[in-house]
Amino acid sequence: MKILFIGDIYGDPGINYLIEMLPQLRKTYQPNIIIANGENAANGRGMTKAIYKKLMSAGISLFTMGNHTWRNPELETFIDEAKIIRPINDGSKKGSGYTIIQYNDKKVLVVNALGTAFMNVEYEQPYKKVKSLLESETFDYSLLDFHAEATSEKIAMAHYLDGKVDMMVGTHTHVQTNDERMLPNGTLYISDVGMTGPLNGVIGVDKDVIIDRFINQINRPNVVANGPRQLNAVLFTLSPKRKIEKIHLEENA
Ligand SMILES: [Fe+2]
What we know:
This protein is an alpha/beta fold. Helices cover about 25% and strands about 25% of the residues. The protein has five helices and twelve strands. The strands form two sheets. Strands 1, 2, 3, 10, 11 and 12 form a six-stranded mixed beta sheet that branches. A hairpin with a 5-residue loop joins strand 11 and strand 12 (about 245-250). The site of fe (ii) ion has 6 residues, from loops. Fe (ii) ion binds next to loops.
């Protein structure tokens, strides 16, 4: 069993680059299931039905979300019928925080949760909630997308769930970390998968907007950056031997 997890798809550059590169990724890695974080797909803010349909027909099996899940209110109208999970601890009554993907005779539990550090919103504590879900459901493999800002919170969660969850990815910070590994009790882990979108923005946003915000205290709305694009992902191999591999693709300027 191989599962490809694609890092946060940011705006049209992320959507289009992913669609262009998926055939090559499929051929090279031969994943059985492809999961992607889609919370920034609609110009950095949530997900629309049109984008969802476009990416599903490109071969994505399931989307996870994050702190921007509900930024595009259209999602409320179709999440309950869609292959999209939202964070289990975001307090929403719409959608679900987890799902089970059936692949041949195997059940893969996928859960999405939000971290609490530096998120500017009070979310319900995710730790015990995710652990009790893992202890109560029946599955062959399990994956957690922990959408969080702090590497310390992600690493703490990973050790807390080590041996209880098979795969854990961090998302949200949009920069791929160099710490992919198997933890002592067998959980495959990376602190952040990285993003899929503009290469030369500031985590997806036009760099001048963010530079102005930091240097000149000028607050303009976020705009998706143009130019060359990048794709970041991880491949989990669960059998016969467990491993996690980082994937990074980028275009030349
Ligand atoms: Fe996020």
